[in-house]
Design goal:
The complex is a heterotrimer of chains A (85), B (206) and C (399). Chain B has 206 residues and is α/β, with parallel strands linked by helices. Chain B contains seven helices and seven strands; from the N terminus they run βββααβαααβαββα. By secondary structure, chain C is an alpha/beta fold. Chain C folds into two domains: 227 residues, Thiolase/Chalcone synthase (Peroxisomal Thiolase, Chain A, domain 1); 163 residues, Thiolase/Chalcone synthase (Peroxisomal Thiolase, Chain A, domain 1), CATH 3.40.47. Classes of the chains: A mainly alpha (85), B alpha/beta (206), C alpha/beta (399).
Chain lengths: 85, 206, 399
C-alpha cells in the first residue's frame, strides 16, 4: 500500500501539473479538494482519466469520484480493491 | 480624428524577449521553458499558471506585467473593466495536443484538462479570473496582426458600452512553439489618442 | 443603448438555417412546432467508442444542397464550409443584397471550425485555421472585405451579432452577414464526454432530473442592416439592447450565483420596460450547473414570472451556431405570439424558481395547442459559455 501511495502521489503531481510540489508535500490523509491541495472540478475529471488509464478503473460519472478522491490514502485503497491493470 | 481612449501601457512577448512599455524585462536564454522562465523572472505566484496551455500562459503573463506594479484590487469584481483579445491560431496549439490524446484507439484517453483549453477565448477567462475583470470579454480571429483593426475593435467596444472604462486589448497568439503577444491597457478618454499616430505606434510596437 | 442621432435602427433583413430538422428557417420552425427532435443515439459515429445522443446533419443532403448552388459541385469544400455557405446564401438571397459590395461585412461565429482536419488534412495546411474558414465563406460570395471571426466559446453566435451591431452603428458597413457554424467530430464529442457533460438520454432542459446536454450540428445566418425605422417592415426583428459580461469565476464552471449573466441582463435591458418581454430564450443546455446558474440570474434580475424556454431539446447544443439559430427561431415564435415549449422538460426543477415553458401533455404532436400564449413584443436571448462569458440580447418585433 505504501508503494501505491507513493506512486499515486507522483502521478497526481504530474497529471495535475502541481508545480513545485514533491510527493513529500502531499499528506496522504489530507483532503484533495477544497482546503487540501485546492484542486477543482477539472482536476477531478483528470483524476478519473488517471484511474482509467493507469489502473483500468472506469467511473461513469463525476459524482462517483467524490468519495474516492477524498484523500490519496482513500484513493489508494479503492485502486487496490478495483484495479484491472 | 481621435480614438475614445488612450494607450496607458503595453506589453510585448515574443520568442526572444519580454518588453514592458519601452523596457526589456527579460530575454530568452535557453528556450527550454521560456514562458515558465518569464513567470519566475517576474516573481509571479499563481500555481494555476502551470495548469494552463501555452496561449493562456502567454496572455496571463502579459496581463500580469501590465497590472502587477499597481496596487491592484484582485478581490472585487471590476464591472468597468473588459478584455478584448484576438489572434490567428485560435487555440490550435492546444487543439493539436488534445488530438494526440484521442488519435490512437489503443491509447484513447481524452484529457479534460487539455480539452478545456481548446477554445480561443479561455485566455480571456483566465485573465478575468486572475484580475477579477467582470465587463465584456471577447475573442476574435484574423489571419494577421493589424494594429488598426485591433484599435477599431476597442473603439467600438468603448463607444457601445457606457460603463466600460478600462480595456485589456491585444493580440495573444501561440502557434508552432512561438508566443506572439502584444497586450495593451486602454483607458477611456473622450479626447483620446490621435488615430493615425496610435495605429502607427501599435504597428511599430508589434 | 444610446439613441443614434439619425434615428436609424438596426434590423434583420435575411435569415438562413441548416439543421437536421430542415434546410430553411421556415422548415425548421415548422418542425419544432410539430414537436420534432433532432437528437438520436449514435454508436460508433466519428469513431467515438462510447455511444452518445446528438443531432447530426445528413451529409448526403448537405452535399447535394451545396452542389445545387455551384457549377463545380462540392469538391474541395468541407462540411463546415458547405453548411456555412448554404445558410449565408439563404440569408443573402432573402436580404436581396449583392454580397460582393464593399459595404457588406462578413462575420463568422465558430468554436472549432475544421478542427477534424487535425486528424487527417488532405487540404492546404492553413485549412484548420478559423480565419481561413471565414475567408472561404467571404470568397465564395466575392466579398472584398477581410472577414471577422468571433470565437467566444458557446456565446460566439451572440458575440458575432454584437460586433455586427457595433459596425452598423459606427457606419463601417451597411450590411452585416453574420454566419454561425459548428459540426461535430471525434474531437468535439470526446471532449464533452471527458467532461461528463453529455446526457445518456435525450436532454431535459431545466428539468429536476436533467443529466447533461446533447450536441447538435447546425449553421445559421442573419443579414442585418441599419435604416430609418419607418422603412422597417412589420414583423421584422430589431435588436434593442445587448451586453457581454464575464463571471471572473471559473474557466469551465458556471458561476453559482449567475453573476456575469445577471450583469449582462441588466445592461441589455437597461432603460427598457421589462413587462414588454414576452419570453426569455435561455441557453438551457440541460447540464445541472448551467440551468441552475441561469435560473439564479433570471430570478435575481426580477424576471421570475417571465416565460423561459430552451430550444436545446429540439436541435441540441449547436455551439457556434446556437446564438444565431435560436434568435431566428425565437423571432418566428414571437411573430406567432407563442413561446415554444422546451422539449424534454417533464418536471421543472432549478435552484431558483422561474417560469419554465414546457409541454404538460404527453404527446408532443399536440404542442401547438399547448404553446404558451404570451404578451409583449420583445424577447430576451441568453447564452453563457466556457471562459466565464455570458451574453444577453434584447430583441423587438416591429408591430
Amino acid at each position: 500500500m505504501k508503494e501505491l501511495i507513493e506512486e499515486l502521489k507522483k502521478e497526481i503531481i504530474e497529471v495535475l501539473n502541481l508545480e513545485g510540489m514533491t510527493p513529500a508535500d502531499i499528506d496522504e490523509n489530507a483532503p484533495l479538494f477544497g482546503e487540501g491541495l485546492g484542486l477543482d472540478s477539472i482536476d477531478a475529471l483528470e483524476l478519473i482519466v488517471l484511474l482509467e488509464k493507469n489502473y483500468g478503473i472506469k467511473l461513469n460519472n463525476a459524482n462517483e469520484g467524490k468519495e474516492i478522491f477524498k484523500s490519496v490514502a482513500v484513493m489508494a485503497e479503492y485502486i487496490a480493491a478495483h484495479r484491472t491493470k | 480624428m481621435n480614438y475614445n481612449f488612450h494607450i496607458e501601457s503595453h506589453c510585448r512577448i515574443t520568442k526572444e524577449l519580454v518588453r514592458l512599455n519601452d523596457e526589456t524585462v527579460c530575454r530568452n536564454q535557453d528556450g527550454q521553458d521560456w514562458l515558465g522562465d518569464i513567470y519566475h523572472a517576474i516573481g509571479m505566484q499563481y500555481p494555476k499558471f502551470f495548469k494552463m496551455d501555452h496561449q493562456c500562459k502567454a496572455g496571463t503573463l502579459a496581463a500580469e506585467l501590465l497590472l502587477h506594479d499597481k496596487e491592484f484590487d484582485r478581490e472585487n469584481v471590476k464591472a468597468g473593466w473588459g478584455i478584448v483579445l484576438m489572434n490567428s491560431a485560435s487555440s490550435l496549439d492546444d487543439d493539436r495536443r488534445y488530438e494526440e490524446t484521442i488519435r490512437d484507439t489503443g491509447n484513447y484517453y481524452p484529457s479534460p484538462a487539455i480539452f478545456v483549453y481548446t477554445l480561443a477565448n479561455i485566455v480571456t477567462g483566465e485573465i478575468a479570473i486572475r484580475h477579477k475583470i467582470g465587463g465584456e470579454s471577447s475573442f476574435y480571429v484574423f489571419e494577421k496582426f493589424d494594429g488598426e483593426q485591433m484599435l477599431d475593435l476597442a473603439e467600438r467596444a468603448f463607444a457601445d458600452t457606457p460603463d466600460l472604462d478600462t480595456l485589456l486589448c491585444g493580440w495573444v497568439d501561440y502557434d508552432a512553439s512561438v508566443p506572439d503577444v502584444l497586450l495593451c491597457l486602454l483607458q477611456r478618454d473622450e479626447n483620446g489618442a490621435e488615430k493615425k499616430l496610435s495605429v502607427d505606434k501599435i504597428n511599430k510596437l508589434y | 443603448m444610446e439613441e443614434t442621432e439619425r434615428n436609424h435602427i438596426i434590423h434583420k433583413i435575411g435569415e438562413g438555417v441548416v439543421t437536421p430538422l430542415g434546410f430553411t428557417a421556415d422548415a425548421v420552425y415548422a418542425a419544432i412546432r410539430r414537436g420534432e427532435r433532432g437528437g438520436v443515439l449514435h454508436e460508433g459515429t466519428f469513431g467515438v467508442p462510447e455511444p452518445f445522443f446528438a443531432s447530426i446533419l445528413d451529409k448526403t443532403h448537405l452535399r447535394n444542397s451545396f452542389s445545387a448552388l455551384t457549377d463545380f459541385g462540392c469538391e474541395g469544400f468541407t462540411h463546415v464550409e458547405m453548411a456555412a455557405i448554404l445558410a449565408a446564401n439563404q440569408a443573402i438571397e432573402e436580404a436581396n443584397i449583392a454580397p460582393d459590395r464593399s459595404d457588406v461585412q462578413f462575420i463568422l461565429s465558430t468554436t472549432k471550425g475544421n478542427v477534424d482536419l487535425l486528424e487527417y488534412n488532405p487540404y492546404e495546411p492553413e485549412r484548420p485555421y478559423l480565419w481561413h474558414t471565414a475567408q472561404m465563406v467571404a470568397d465564395f460570395f466575392g466579398n472584398p472585405n477581410r472577414p471577422i471571426v468571433a470565437s467566444n466559446a458557446c456565446i460566439s453566435g451572440c458575440a458575432a451579432q454584437v460586433e455586427a451591431f457595433r459596425q452598423l452603428r459606427q457606419g463601417t458597413c451597411k450590411y452585416a452577414v453574420v454566419v454561425g457554424v459548428d459540426m461535430l467530430s471525434k474531437f468535439v464529442v470526446s471532449g464533452f464526454q471527458s467532461f461528463k457533460a453529455l446526457s445518456p438520454e435525450l436532454c431535459k432542459p431545466f428539468d429536476a432530473n436533467r443529466r447533461g446536454l446533447n450536441l447538435g450540428e447546425a449553421a445559421a445566418a442573419i443579414v442585418y442592416t441599419i435604416d430609418k425605422e419607418e422603412n422597417v417592415p412589420a414583423g421584422e426583428l430589431i435588436p434593442e439592447g445587448w451586453a457581454i459580461r464575464n463571471d471572473a469565476n471559473h474557466i469551465s464552471g458556471p458561476s453559482r450565483t449567475g453573476e456575469g449573466l445577471l450583469r449582462a441582463i441588466q445592461a441589455a435591458t437597461h432603460g427598457h420596460d421589462a413587462t414588454r418581454i414576452a419570453f426569455i430564450n435561455a441557453h438551457g443546455t440541460a447540464t445541472p450547473y448551467n440551468d441552475d446558474m441561469e435560473s439564479m440570474a433570471i430570478s435575481r434580475a426580477g424576471l421570475t414570472h417571465t416565460p423561459v424556454n430552451s430550444l436545446k431539446g429540439y436541435l441540441g447544443h449547436t455551439l457556434g451556431a446556437a446564438g444565431i439559430l435560436e434568435v431566428i427561431l425565437s423571432a418566428h415564435a414571437l411573430r406567432d405570439h407563442v413561446a415554444i415549449p422546451s422539449a424534454g422538460t417533464e418536471t421543472p426543477g432549478t435552484v431558483a424558481e422561474i417560469n419554465i415553458c414546457y409541454n404538460t401533455n404527453d404527446t408532443l404532436h399536440q404542442q401547438d395547442a399547448n404553446a404558451h400564449s404570451i404578451q409583449g413584443d420583445h424577447f430576451l436571448k441568453l447564452i453563457s459559455g466556457f471562459g466565464g462569458s455570458n451574453a444577453a440580447l434584447l430583441f423587438r418585433i416591429k408591430q
